[in-house]
Write a structure and sequence with these properties.
357 residues; binds manganese (II) ion; binds guanosine-5'-monophosphate; alpha/beta
């Protein structure tokens, strides 16, 4: 069953009625989101959780991993179960097994939640996907899905409105959802910043969301280690390849350890590479405990999700994607550089389009 809810377009009223009936009486609900949740993943999950709690559901939010400290202000954060933390695996497994409904937010594929994915797959609960990534796997009974949506938080807002329950969105829910929209649009700068985004933001402000406060909580909450790490990465770990309109960072485990790096400390780093004049393709290659990760960004039409899918078992959006590598850091960098000639034509073509104002 598929719902499309972007910009006021809405299909599937009959299914919406069934969905409404489903959530109109208290249930055991689990909400889960992707590994290393960002502000949209967590904001949409906690926004939905608070909404469902108001409707008297018994709600557990399970994240596959920890997430940055700068998200801990969100309402409902104190109740989040981090699956990776000691003792939480068994508790999470039981909640998933016993759930009546499992909501999967801000991811399109059960492999994005690691071993939690198998448990969700096996569960007898009704599954609901709320997501804005391309090509979702077909595992959910209900899908609130649109790639037109800037953020999963936008879809959660649209869904609550479509259910006729807008009155239940309070200031705290509004601020959680606003955080997701603000960050997934790159502070209202990315091409996904459409009319609906601004309309919803205005509505959230009308409800009382303090957008200045949320902006400060997320962006002006750096540790000195993080700032120094950013300075180090910019001066020592950034390479620009003008012939490919490309720039990339390479960050080793040692670099991360040297600056006491915490979850979220590299978030946004790749955007510095993309901010360079002449660069339309940027990459952060980082060595993590569980392997080498690539975080990819582009300006304009160069499809980094395709690049990630074709070469690094990943995916995402056209302008923001990610992937992983089985190789070590050095060989991953070599592979990345080796791939560029194949994409040179596309990179140059898109760069030329970008500079035409
Ligand atoms: P980030 O670079 O911020 O980790 O991820 C950027 C975008 O790419 C996110 O929207 C995320 O959904 C997607 N993404 C990141 N890593 C992966 C991955 O390994 N597989 C897939 N399919 N998408 C990813
Ligand atoms: Mn998102």
């Amino acid at each position: 069953m598929l719902f499309l809810l972007p910009a006021g377009i809405f299909y599937g009223m009959r299914d919406l009625k069934n969905f409404k009936k489903l959530i109109d009486s208290p249930k055991r609900v689990v909400i889960t989101t992707h590994y290393k949740p960002d502000a949209d993943a967590l904001g949409s999950s906690l926004g939905l959780a608070e909404f469902l709690r108001k409707k008297k559901h018994n709600v557990s939010v399970i994240t596959p991993s920890d997430y940055p400290d700068f998200l801990s202000w969100m309402k409902g954060n104190d109740k989040v179960i981090n699956y990776e933390a000691n003792g939480n695996q068994e508790k999470s497994a039981k909640l998933i097994e016993k759930a009546d409904i499992i909501f999967c937010l801000d991811f399109n594929n059960l492999s994005r939640i690691n071993s939690l994915g198998e448990k969700v797959q096996a569960a007898s609960a009704i599954k609901v996907l709320i997501d804005h990534h391309l090509e979702p796997d077909n595992f959910a009974d209900y899908e609130f899905w649109s790639t037109e949506a800037s953020a999963t938080s936008e879809l959660v807002y649209d869904m609550i409105v479509a259910l006729g329950e807008k009155d239940l969105i309070d200031v705290k829910i509004a601020e959680n959802l606003y955080a997701g929209i603000m960050t997934d649009t790159g502070q209202f700068k990315h091409p996904n910043t459409n009319r609906n985004v601004h309309i919803i933001t205005a509505e959230l402000m009308e409800i009382g969301a303090d957008v200045s406060k949320v902006g400060k909580l997320i962006y002006d909450n750096n540790s000195i280690d993080r700032l120094k790490f950013t300075g180090f990465a910019l001066s020592k770990r950034l390479t620009v390849l003008p012939e490919y309109n490309t720039a990339y960072f390479v960050i080793s485990k040692r670099d991360l350890a040297k600056f006491n790096s915490k979850t979220g400390d590299t978030e946004g780093l790749v955007n510095y590479a993309l901010s360079l004049k002449g660069v339309i393709f940027a990459c952060l290659i980082s060595e993590r405990n569980d392997g080498v990760r690539l975080s990819l960004r582009s300006k304009g039409k160069f499809p980094v999700n395709k690049f990630a899918k074709e070469n690094f078992d990943g995916g995402g959006h056209r302008n923001a994607a990610g992937g992983t590598s089985d190789l070590n850091l050095e060989n991953t960098v070599e592979k990345f550089i080796g791939l560029l000639p194949k994409y040179k034509h596309l990179l140059i073509k898109n760069f030329k389009k970008e500079i035409k104002i």
